[in-house]
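lol ok so funny story. i was supposed to be doing the assay writeup but got distracted and ended up predicting the structure for this chain instead. priorities right. anyway since i did it might as well share w the group, maybe its usefull for someone
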Amino acid sequence: MSRNLVKPRIRLPLDEDFRPPMLHNHWFLDAVRKSGKEEPLGIAIERNDGLTSVFETVVSTQGYDTARANLPYVSLLAKTLLWQWGGWKIVVGGPKTIGNHIKDEYSQGGKRAFDADFMGGVYEKPFTVEVVAFDDIPEPKEKRLSFAGHLDGCRIGFDAGASDRKVAAVTDGKVVFSEEVVWNPKIHSDPQYHFDEIMSALRSAASHMPRVDAIGISAAGIYINNRVRVASLFRGVPRELFEKRVKNLFLDIKKEWGDIPLEVVHDGDVAALAGAMALNDTKVLGIALGSSEGVGYIDGDGNITGWLNELAFVPVDLNPMAPVDEWSGDRGCGVQYLSQEAVVRLASKAGIVLEEKQTPAEKLKCVQKLMSDGDEGARKIFETIGCYMGYSIAYYADFYDIKHVLILGRVTSGEGGNIILKKAEEVLKLEFPDLATRMKIQLPDESYRRVGQAVAAASLPALK
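and the output, tada:
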């Protein structure tokens, strides 16, 4: 596979060894189709409530030159789809050699054992890989969440950030009160702290309205049927207490408010919803470059899909010496390329010395200050990240129907954000002109800031 990794046409100032999956995948698929020796392959992934998503492609018939690239191609494809959709069962329909390879990767001690353990915990089922014939792939079963910007009645929107919490009181679409309070939920081991802080924010907003008809909550993490599965906000809570007190925390809060409509949604999806509301359009992919890479998506009907969209775990670089994600142990994952981690990692290549005692956020601010002072090394950092962004968007476009890409997060603050945007657009225009003509990449504008994530969160529940 390494012999066929395609070099980007755009030069990355600080990463000449970067090899994006999009270019390799298109090389592979073109070669297979031109050979005339192809056979179909499908991947179905089942998640909660029997919901199933399906992706179909082709691979090379065994015995031909291109067949040696089948396994790495399908390996990355399966991982990408798993972290896009989420799920506890992968069904591989096609050649048994390929299906058995994926089964081995997700077995205990296999290359993807972390992914299997993580997803099994999220969906509370043993992780499974099944190998079937292509014709026996399960039918897709999707359920869109109809969060299309409901703003009728008296609503509360709560945005649970890692360093501050925001709340808004919204009456028939008009913000009558908003508040931002600094907090540090990750260090607290007692779930009562989280319960009390959230209830305090909700009561503060409620005091500015005659009644409360619905509550919408935006929070980092994975939430299924309003139950907490994985969330950094509760990182300090011991596992036993998490199971007893945190898992159903938002269901308990709903009871406290008389069982009015309440919805908890991944903050990436809420950010994308806020963008869709501000743009008054659909097919929006939101990519937040913060402490990690956060992603959300609004489909063509203006709805949230219910997928995980945890693309921070998806590799965007096939370079065999790409940096390793400290959590999953995999190389080239988006978290190392589209977050403040990328800024810190590239700083040394740019000749910028950062103090070891500084936090990643403080190091980012230091680089951003250098950028505002005209430092050439800092400029190269953001140019390189902009190239990462362009090639990653092109890869994501194979899996999402995208009309707008909204890039946001603390890494995009200041002039660095404009450079990221410009380089990403340059990549699309040169390498993927068809994508450049049908999608628009943009930074949040004033209308997005006016809508706000807390207000978008308020619009999540439909009134009974």
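The mean pLDDT is 93. The chain has 15 helices and 15 strands.
back to the writeup now i swear
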